[in-house]
TrEMBL record, chain A:
Keywords of this entry: ATP-binding, Nucleotide-binding, Transport
Protein name as annotated: ABC transporter ATP-binding protein
Domain (ABC transporter): residue spans on this chain: 17-246
Family listed: Belongs to the ABC transporter superfamily.
Gene3D superfamilies for the chain: P-loop containing nucleotide triphosphate hydrolases
Organism this protein belongs to: Histidinibacterium lentulum
Pfam families tied to this protein: ABC_tran
GO molecular function, one term: ATP hydrolysis activity
InterPro entries: AAA+_ATPase (IPR003593), ABC_transporter-like_ATP-bd (IPR003439), ABC_transporter-like_CS (IPR017871), ABC_transporter_ATP-bind (IPR050166), P-loop_NTPase (IPR027417)
Keyword Nucleotide-binding: yes
CDD domains named among the record's database cross-references: ABC_NrtD_SsuB_transporters (cd03293)
TrEMBL record, chain B:
Name the UniProt record assigns to this protein: ABC transporter permease
A family per Pfam: BPD_transp_1
Mode of membrane association: Multi-pass membrane protein
Membrane-crossing residue ranges in chain numbering: 23-40, 75-102, 114-135, 141-164, 232-252
InterPro entries per UniProt: MetI-like, MetI-like_sf
Family: Belongs to the binding-protein-dependent transport system permease family.
Keyword terms: Cell membrane, Membrane, Transmembrane, Transmembrane helix, Transport
GO cellular component terms attached to this protein's record: plasma membrane
Gene3D superfamilies registered for this protein in UniProt: MetI-like (1.10.3720.10)
An individual GO BP term: transmembrane transport
């Protein structure tokens, strides 16, 4: 299953997301958050956006999600220009932002409630997603009864419940401890592989970016821009031990070099 | 089984629990205070005119509740007044608070008036309300409304305004409409702080009712206290005051109960209970 998904990724040439000269300025043009970004992201691929703070990686993600509008150029998803939040684009944040008064499964059902009346089939689907993220026994727990890692798992299930095939993740496990983050990263790879979604993942951790992605977009600040795209050749599934291999660390060194001395 | 039973009973019989000892200590202190009062009153250290003996107060309780039974009518009148005024004041407070909270423009213009209202003792307006509405139930309810309007108003306003920015962004990314954001995020999020306002309002409503009854002495516990004090029947006046103590306590506990059910997620036992209920509700769909 995973192998097939990996092959599909590499083989597919249908473009899901593309950007043409996408730029964003704040404070009336005096602050350039992102400068002329051009990119094409094929269906089913996993993209990491990596760089120091101020490199525009979160800005780029928000532009693709439609939460903010570009100052120049435009973003296209599935052939149509992005003008605002859409049902085929799902977003996950650094904080789980669950609703305290809802159980885990009710939180997962939230995206469905926005579009239609929840059916029994929807409830079944949400329950299956919670099983997929390993929370079978916590489906009726409230957020305050869950650990930080579990809350992010619920947020991941909620993201999948949207049914979007483009998943945007803004440092989703950034607030968690190292061990939990590593485990969730492995599961994230497995899950998006199973679902076959196109994924864009923002991080400031170089090793994490390489480990997860098919292509790493290395971004540099002042002004924020995409400095280079590094292709990651390793096949899937990728064991954790990959991170200690020579080839892996050569890629890390390559990304560091692009980022320059200030990183 | 038998062994464990005997160890259990031994544990209980071997000494009083911390809780039991605490209750006994409190009861001991309370009874000592009452006894000192009784002795002081009999020995003439306390003026019996203003500090009636506990035994006399107890007899007054018997008089007004059982023998004459006249307190019931007034108790009923006061409670109707409290709840009518509280309902009117808190509905107005929550409604206006939400309205102002949702409208940034209105919020900016109303702010100076809120500050002025906050600085003014609301009860000072009571005589004006009576002048405007005349003696009778409407002016009494209006006085209570006035004293218990403010806390729900301010709390609803701040609850609605202070919505977590990250959650708002989540709702935006899900393409939620204004109405959906209001119903599924803003209002539920504000419930605990609104409930805190309601608790303050209900306590204020009881005080407001007494002031209203002091001014218009036709019925209610407040007027009864006034009548007894004028007749120098201090024991019965005290019985009325202690009646209010009990009433205040019950109102406070009742409100706490409502709060624990409406804002259940703020209280640990509520989570377990509601979690179980929601699991039962969804059981059928999940085939479990």
């Amino acid at each position: 299953m995973n192998m097939q998904a990996a092959e599909a990724r590499v083989g597919s040439d249908e473009i899901v997301v593309s950007g043409r000269n996408v730029g964003k300025t704040f404070a009336g043009g005096s602050v350039v958050a992102l400068e002329g970004a051009n990119f094409e992201i094929p269906k089913g691929s996993f993209i990491s956006l990596v760089g120091p703070s101020g490199c525009g990686k979160s800005t780029l993600l928000r532009l693709i999600s439609g939460l903010i509008e570009p100052s120049s150029g435009d973003v296209t998803v599935h052939g149509t220009k992005v003008t605002g939040p859409r049902q085929d684009i799902g977003m996950m944040f650094q904080k789980a932002t669950l609703l305290d008064w809802r159980t885990a499964i009710e939180n997962v059902l939230l995206p469905t409630e926005m579009t239609r009346k929840v059916t029994k089939a929807d409830q079944k689907h949400a329950s299956d997603l919670l099983k997929l993220v390993g929370l079978k026994d916590f489906r009726f727990a409230f957020p305050s009864q869950l650990s930080g890692g579990m809350q992010q798992r619920v947020a991941l299930a909620r993201l999948l419940q949207t049914g979007a095939d483009l998943l945007l993740l803004d440092e989703p496990f950034g607030a968690l401890d190292e061990f939990t983050r590593e485990r969730l990263n492995v599961e994230l790879m497995r899950i998006v592989g199973e679902v076959g979604a196109t994924t864009i993942f923002v991080t400031h951790n170089i090793a994490e970016a390489i480990y997860l992605a098919d292509h790493v977009y290395v971004m540099t600040p002042r002004p924020g821009r995409i400095a280079s795209v590094v292709d990651v050749p390793f096949e899937r599934p990728r064991p954790l031990s990959l991170q200690t291999s020579l080839e892996f660390n050569q890629l890390v060194a390559q990304v560091r070099e692009i980022l320059g001395e200030d990183h | 089984m038998a062994v464990s039973d005997s160890t259990l009973s031994e544990g209980a019989g071997g000494g009083l629990s911390l809780r039991q000892r605490r209750i006994l200590t409190h009861a001991g202190i309370f009874l000592t205070l009452i006894a000192l009062w009784e002795i002081g009153s009999r020995a003439g250290w306390l003026d019996p005119l203003f500090y009636p003996r506990p035994s006399n107060i107890l007899r007054s309780f018997w008089l007004i509740y059982v023998q004459n039974g006249n307190v019931w009518y007034h108790l009923y009148a006061t409670m109707i007044l409290v709840f009518a005024g509280f309902a009117a004041g808190s509905i107005l407070g929550v409604g206006l608070g939400a309205l102002v909270g949702f409208n940034p423009l209105v919020r900016r213009f109303i702010k100076p008036y809120v500050i002025v209202l906050e600085a003014t003792p609301r009860i000072a307006v009571a005589p004006l309300l009576i002048a405007a509405l005349g003696f009778g139930a409407p002016s009494k309810v209006a006085i209570i409304m006035l004293v218990c309007f403010f806390a729900p108003f301010i709390n609803t306003l701040s609850g609605v305004v202070n919505v977590d920015e990250d959650r708002l962004e989540l709702f935006r990314s899900l393409g939620a409409s204004k109405w959906q954001t209001l119903r599924k995020l803003v209002l539920p999020d504000a419930v605990p702080v609104i409930m805190a306002g309601e608790r303050l309002a209900l306590t204020a409503a009881l005080s407001g009712a007494l002031v209203a009854e002091f001014i218009q002495r036709n019925e209610g516990i407040g007027s009864l206290i006034l009548v007894y004090t004028r007749n120098l029947n201090m024991a019965s006046a005290f019985a009325c005051i202690f009646t209010l103590t009990i009433l205040g306590f019950l109102i406070f506990r009742g409100m706490e109960w409502v709060d624990h059910h409406v804002a259940f997620w703020k209280h640990e036992p509520g989570l377990e209970r509601v979690g179980r209920r929601r699991r039962r509700k969804m059981k059928e769909a999940l085939d479990e």
